[in-house]
């Protein structure tokens, strides 16, 4: 092992807590999708916040928020799965290389990993992802999403916020 690789080994146990965040996202995502699949017929909708949100059971063959839907083509689903696995691998490497002092970034990456795993699991097992949160104002609807999509979005937002933080102390006034 190189000296740099050895210096990160003692920090690995500190990162396990963040991996529990990923596991919690994965479990909560899969549980909520299961509840929707069991209790709400496909394409059915039920209001949860009058005039703002519904639970609407849809199957998404595209990426987050229904973008680039594969239109039922299994080759498109496999391509999206392969791309998702590649992106997940990149995020995992970034997570592993992130210093333990960067707690916001680690939390953000843990949310992205948990969400990516949730959607990849669906895509690999059924060829589509269950989405069910339907937010809207009047007739204007945001594309349906799920817990995994929300975790990924929150994680990316935290990564942007973290990147805008000052990494260096401000100079002392003269």
What's this model, at a glance?
With 174 residues, the chain is α+β, with helices and mostly antiparallel strands. The chain has 5 helices and 4 strands; from the N terminus they run ααββααββα.
What descriptive keywords fit this protein?
57% helix, 5 helices, alpha+beta, 174 residues, single chain, 4-stranded antiparallel β-sheet
What does the secondary structure layout of this molecule look like, with pairings?
Elements: H1 3-8, H2 12-39, E1 45-49, E2 53-60, H3 74-97, H4 103-126, E3 129-137, E4 140-141, H5 147-164
Antiparallel strand pairs: 1-2, 2-3, 3-4
Helix pairs in contact: 2-4, 3-4, 4-5
Q: How many helical elements? A: 5
Helix-strand makeup class: alpha+beta
The major pleated sheet works out as:
4 strands, antiparallel
Tell the overall outline: globular
Tell me the fraction of residues in β-strands, as a range: 5-15%
Report mean pLDDT, rounded to a whole number.
84
Helix content: 55-70%
Main sheet strand line-up: 1-2-3-4
* Strands, total number: 4
Assembly context of the chains: single chain
Contiguous runs where pLDDT drops below 50 for at least 5 residues: none
Order of helices and strands: HHEEHHEEH
Q: Evaluate the radius of gyration.
A: 19 Å
């Amino acid at each position: 092992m190189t000296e740099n690789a050895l210096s990160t080994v003692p920090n690995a146990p500190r990162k396990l807590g963040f991996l529990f965040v990923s596991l919690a996202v994965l479990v909560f995502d899969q549980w909520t999708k299961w509840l929707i699949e069991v209790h709400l017929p496909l394409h059915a909708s039920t209001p949860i916040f009058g005039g703002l949100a519904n639970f609407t059971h849809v199957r998404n063959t595209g990426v987050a928020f229904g973008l680039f839907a594969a239109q039922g083509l299994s080759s498109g689903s496999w391509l999206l799965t392969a791309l998702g696995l590649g992106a997940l691998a990149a995020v995992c490497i970034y997570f592993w290389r992130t210093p333990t002092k960067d707690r916001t970034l680690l939390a953000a990456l843990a949310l992205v990993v948990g969400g990516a795993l949730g959607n990849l699991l669906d895509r690999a097992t059924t060829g589509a992802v269950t989405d069910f949160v339907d937010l809207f104002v009047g007739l204007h609807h945001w594309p349906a999403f799920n817990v995994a999509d929300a975790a990924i979005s929150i994680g990316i937002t935290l990564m942007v916020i973290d990147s805008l933080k000052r990494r260096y102390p401000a100079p002392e006034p003269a």
